[in-house]
Amino acid sequence: MIEIDQAKIDFFQNEILNWYSKFGRDFYWRKHNLTDFEYIIAEVLLQRTKAETVAKFYPSFISRFPDWQYIANASDNEIEDFLRPVGLYTQRAKRLKSLAKEMVKRDGKLPRDRQVLESIPFMGQYIANAVELVIFKQPSPLMDVNMSRVLERFFGERKLADIRYDPYLQELAYKVVAHPNSKKVNWAILDFAASVCQARKPKCNSCIFKARCSYYLNNESIFPTES
């Protein structure tokens, strides 16, 4: 287990929020006047899909399916056709319809009990975290491969292959987003992963964290000096 340095977490939070104030992305689902349904649909669509792709598609989806009942009443083929632009449409359509039927039964109300929440179709760890963060106003991490990459590069690598079950990474993520502006910390990390701390070609030489980043300091020799 790698010891988590609170001073380094504080530094990371301050720097990532400063960066976000200048370079953060502006998406429809980050506005404050969305319904619980609209927030959940955004997170469902964002799984394994680039945010920019979802941004182009999201308004038309919400217009066609404005609540759970519309999705529950739609045919599988209709949902698949609408989801085709964002990929994985067959799998997503079936799971989304199952989720919609369950939410109709629940009258659109989400349980606060974490175990019950994750038992709802299509929830799982990531969307349950998103529900806690955006709807219940709790500091939960939007943990996916992108957030994992940023945190591991700066703080140190996890031990287990599956990010959902690695105790170090999970504890680290919760500590990093434990902040009065938890939503912005989450969004900042995801935006930073997309534009700077990229998977294949990270922009390490111009990174705000390079002086204290474990990944950069351990691999500094492989990054050419920028002219």
Any overview of this molecule?
The protein is mainly α and 227 residues long. The chain folds into two domains: 6-25 and 140-222, Helix-hairpin-Helix base-excision DNA repair enzymes (C-terminal) (Endonuclease Iii, domain 2); 34-109, Endonuclease III, domain 1, CATH 1.10.340. The chain is built from twelve helices and no strands. It has helices spanning 6-23, 36-46, 51-64, 68-73, 76-83, 89-105, 114-119, 124-135, 145-155, 167-176, 182-195, 214-219. α2 (36-46) runs antiparallel to α8. The protein is globular, with a radius of gyration of 19 Å. It starts with 5 loop residues before the first helix and ends in an 8-residue tail after the last helix. The mean pLDDT is 92. Keywords: DNA damage, DNA repair, Glycosidase, Hydrolase, Iron, Iron-sulfur, Metal-binding. Residues 45-195 form the HhH-GPD domain. This is HhH-GPD domain-containing protein.
CATH homology group of the largest domain: Helix-hairpin-Helix base-excision DNA repair enzymes (C-terminal)
How is the biggest beta sheet arranged?
none
Average pLDDT reading: 92
E-strand count: 0
Query: Could you give the distance between the termini?
Result: 39 Å
Q: Give the oligomer, counting copies of the same chain as homo and different chains as hetero.
A: single chain
* Tertiary shape: globular
Q: Give unreliable regions as ranges.
A: none
Number of separate structural domains: 2
Tally of separate helices:
12
